[in-house]
Design brief:
This protein has 272 residues and is α/β, with parallel strands linked by helices. The protein is 40% helix and 14% strand. The protein has one domain: Alpha-Beta Barrel (TIM Barrel). It is globular. Bound molecules: NADP nicotinamide-adenine-dinucleotide phosphate. NADP nicotinamide-adenine-dinucleotide phosphate (NAP) binds next to helix 9.
C-alpha cells in the first residue's frame, strides 16, 4: 500500500483508505486494516453516530498509532463550544482519545472563523492532531485558511471520481499551492459508457486487478491525493487494497483521461 504525506501534517498516510457511510462492516474494516488500509474516514452524521461506534469496535485491537482516524463535525454543531462537545462525543463513540484529523463536514451557517478557532483549540488541547474541511470550494478554502491563526488546513475532502473530475481544476490546485491533501469521497462512482468500461476492463486485466482498482489508482495518481472507498464485502476490500500499489503507465492514464473527460463546472462544487 502506497503511503504518502498527508498535506503538511508530517503524517504518512495510506493513499487508499476506508469510508464508513452510512455504517461500516466491522470485519471488513478489520480486513482492510490488516491489508494496510489504516486510513479510516467517519463522521458524527453517519448512522447518527453508529458508524463511529462500529469503527471504534473495529479498531479496538490495533495500536492507536498504527491508524489514521478522521471524523467530521456537522455544520450545525460547528460553533466554538459546539465543535469541542461534538469532538468529545465522537472520541467517546470511537473509544480513542484523539483524532488524527477532524473536518468541518460542509460549510453551514456558523461563521467560519468561529469553527476554525474551535478546531485550533482542539489541536492545542491534544484532542485532534490536524484539522481540515470537506466540500469546500476555493473561495471557502481561502476564507477558512485566512481565519486560522496557528494551524493549516490539512485536507479538503471532496466528491471526486471518474464522473466528477472538476476538483482537478479547482480544489486540487488550491491544495497543491497550500500544502493540503485532497481526499476523494464516493471515488467509485462513474458514468457507464461502453468505451470507458472496455478500457478499464482492459487495463485491469493487464495489471490483474479490477476496474474499480484502476479507477482508484487513477484518482490518486497525484501524490497529494487520497481516496476513501467504502466496502462491506471482503472481495471489494481486497480489490481496493490492490489499488494502493498499482502504478498505471502514462499511456494508460492518458487513455482513462480521454475516456472519462473532466467537464467544465458551472456552479459550486457538487456534493453527495
Ligand atoms: P464509494 O466508496 O464510491 O462506493 C461504495 C459502494 O461501492 C458500495 O456499494 C460498495 O459495496 C461498492 N464497492 C466498494 N468497493 C468496490 C469494488 N472494489 N468493486 C465494486 N464495488 C465496490 O461511495 P461512498 O460510500 O459514498 O464514499 C466513500 C466514503 O466517502 C463514504 O463511506 C464516506 O466515508 C465518505 N463520504 C464523505 C462525504 C462528505 O461529504 N465528506 C460524502 C459521501 C461519502 P459493498 O459495501 O457492498 O462492498
Amino acid at each position: 500500500m502506497k503511503r504518502r504525506p498527508f498535506g503538511t501534517t508530517g503524517f504518512d498516510v495510506a493513499a487508499i483508505g476506508q469510508g464508513t457511510w452510512p455504517v461500516p462492516d466491522r470485519d471488513a474494516l478489520r480486513h482492510g486494516i490488516d491489508l494496510g488500509m489504516t486510513h479510516i474516514d467517519t463522521a458524527e452524521l453517519y448512522g447518527d453516530g453508529r458508524s463511529e461506534e462500529i469503527v471504534g469496535e473495529a479498531i479496538a485491537p490495533y495500536p492507536r498509532e498504527s491508524l489514521f482516524v478522521v471524523s467530521k463535525v456537522m455544520p450545525s454543531n460547528a460553533t466554538r463550544i459546539g465543535v469541542a462537545r461534538a469532538c468529545e462525543r465522537s472520541l467517546r463513540r470511537l473509544g480513542i482519545d484523539y483524532l488524527d484529523c477532524y473536518l468541518l463536514h460542509w460549510r453551514g451557517a456558523v461563521a467560519l472563523d468561529e469553527t476554525m478557532h474551535g478546531l485550533e483549540d482542539l489541536v492545542r488541547d491534544g484532542k485532534i492532531r490536524s484539522l481540515g474541511v470537506s466540500n469546500f470550494d476555493p473561495w471557502d478554502l481561502r476564507e477558512a485558511a485566512a481565519a486560522l491563526e496557528q494551524e493549516r488546513i490539512a485536507c479538503n475532502q471532496v466528491l471526486y471520481n471518474l464522473g466528477e473530475r472538476t476538483p482537478e481544476a479547482y480544489e486540487l490546485p488550491w491544495a497543491r499551492a497550500s500544502g493540503a491533501a485532497l481526499v476523494a469521497y464516493t471515488p467509485l462512482a462513474r458514468p457507464k459508457n461502453a468505451g470507458g468500461e472496455e478500457l478499464l476492463a482492459e487495463v485491469a486485466a493487464r495489471h490483474r486487478v479490477t476496474p474499480e482498482a484502476v479507477a482508484l489508482a487513477f484518482l490518486v495518481r497525484d501524490p497529494i491525493a487520497f481516496a476513501i472507498p467504502k466496502a462491506a464485502s471482503m472481495r471489494h476490500v481486497e480489490a481496493n487494497v490492490a489499488a494502493g500499489s498499482l502504478q498505471l503507465e502514462d499511456a494508460e492514464l492518458a487513455a482513462i483521461d480521454a475516456a472519462f473527460p473532466a467537464r467544465a463546472r458551472t456552479g459550486p462544487l457538487p456534493m453527495n
